[in-house]
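User: Predict the complex with 6-O-phosphono-beta-D-glucopyranose.
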Amino acid sequence: MVKGFLFDLDGVIVDTAVFHFQAWRRLAQKLGGDFTEAQNEQLKGVSRVDSLKKILEWTGATISDEEFQALMELKNEWYLELVIQLSAKDGLPGAVDFLHQAKAQGIGIALGSASKNAPLILDKMNLLPLFDAIIDGNNVVNGKPHPEVFLKGAEALGLAPAECIVFEDSIAGVQAAKSGGMTCVGIGTPDILGGADLYFNALGETSPEELLRAL
Ligand code: BG6
Ligand code: MG
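Assistant: Here is the predicted structure with 6-O-phosphono-beta-D-glucopyranose placed in the model:
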């Protein structure tokens, strides 16, 4: 029986996945390269460090450890310039309503995000009070596709992985959920985001009640 929902943040609750893409692309261009929207699927859900490693691979740039740190900070500055504009109305279609409905039904709610900016974003959107637990990039050693972030989320809710549904928009995140033993709802389409148990384009296409009935 499902008793808990574990939500990814960027690209599931709020449209920040596009901000990450813009900021990383700006960085790749600064390094004399670029990457496509299709390649960007490989960055979704992936930690800041691992994302920069991938971009260096794609651009063929070699840099020192100091430059690596400086570039991560620069990307984050550019990303935060975009995030700063966020407000409570910027949830993805139906996402905030879905969270409220789940809360009203007594379902445990945890965040399972790779982002170190997650608390800031949830605060800007006034969503912090809805979460029973927040596990983010500040609390994990292993990034997605490792299941640590979701296993810690389930544990924080006092639930077994099999009692939880993960909501994910990234390939790495779906892999993390499935290898953690959770049911996974993909936010996206199966052609791009394989491996989930069912799919919606946005949380607004379903409701907690309907999901619990379907699963
Ligand atoms: C994930 C995003 O949620 O967080 C990734 O999908 C991002 O694109 C990762 O790299 C880390 O985020 P941040 O905000 O700590 O740089
Ligand atoms: Mg995401």
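The mean pLDDT is 97.
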